[in-house]
Amino acid sequence: MNKRILVTGSSRGIGKAIALELAKSGFDVTVHARSRQQEAEQVCEEIRMLGRESHVLMFDVNDRELIIQHLENDIAQFGAFYGVVLNAGLTRDGAFPALTDDDWDDVISTSLNGFYNVLKPLMMPMIRMKKGGRIVTLSSVSGVMGNRGQVNYSAAKAGLIGATKALALELAKRKITVNCVAPGLIETEMVTEEVKEHALKMIPMQRMGQVEEVAKVVRFLCSDDASYITRQVISVNGGLI
C-alpha cells in the first residue's frame, strides 16, 4: 500500500504546489478545500496524471463535527494517513485598533482550531498503524517575528509553532515527526503590489520566493531522509530573519 498524505488548503497556491510535489515523490495525496471544489478536482487530476491516487475532501477546518465525519469515513475506506500537511490559513490584515471581533476570531480559529480539528481524528489511526508518520504545519515569518498590521495572523501562526513543538514531543517515540515550515514573502495571488514593494526592501535576496521552493522543503520533511528531524521550524524567507 502506498503512503498517503492529506494536504489541507491544497486547491491553489502553496498547498497545490505541496500536493503536486508530494505526488511527484511517490505519495498518494488527498486534496482538501473549503469551497473551491472545481479547482481541487483539477489538482486531483494533475496528481493522477503523475500516476498517484488522489481524491478530494471538502470541509471548513472550523467545522469539527463535519471534519470528524469526513475523516473517519475516509480512513474507513482508504486506511490511515501516513502524513498530514496543515496548510489551510486565513488573513484579515489591518491595524490592531481597526480589527473586528470576526477578524480576530476567524484568523485564530482557522489556524489553531484547524490544527486540533484536523489532527485529532487522525492521530490514533496513525499511531495504531505503527509505521511512523509525518506532520508538517505551515506557519509564517509573521509567526516567528511578528508583523505590523497582522497582530491576529502573527498570533495565530506563533500559536501554531507552539502547538507543533508540543505535539512533536508527544509523538517522537512513535516515530511520527512533527515540524513547521515558516514561509516569508511567497509569490501567490494573495500578495498585493503594495506588499511586494514594501517587503522586497527588507529581504536580503531582493526577490520573492516561489511556491515550489516551499513545497520542496515540505516534501523533504515528509521523506525518509528527514526521519531524525522533528520539533523544528524551518524558515523559507530569503534571509528576512
TrEMBL record:
> Where in the numbering of this chain does the Ketoreductase domain appear?
3-189
Q: Which UniProt keywords apply?
A: Oxidoreductase
- Which residues constitute the signal peptide according to the record? none
The record, for Pfam families, names: adh_short_C2 (PF13561)
Gene Ontology MF: a single term: 3-oxoacyl-[acyl-carrier-protein] reductase (NADPH) activity
Q: What is its EC number?
A: 1.1.1.100
Q: Which family does it belong to?
A: Belongs to the short-chain dehydrogenases/reductases (SDR) family.
Which NCBIfam families does this one have?
A: fabG_rel, PRK05653.1-5, PRK12826.1-2
What is the name of the protein in this document?
3-ketoacyl-ACP reductase
What species does this protein belong to? Acinetobacter equi
Provide the gene name from the record: fabG
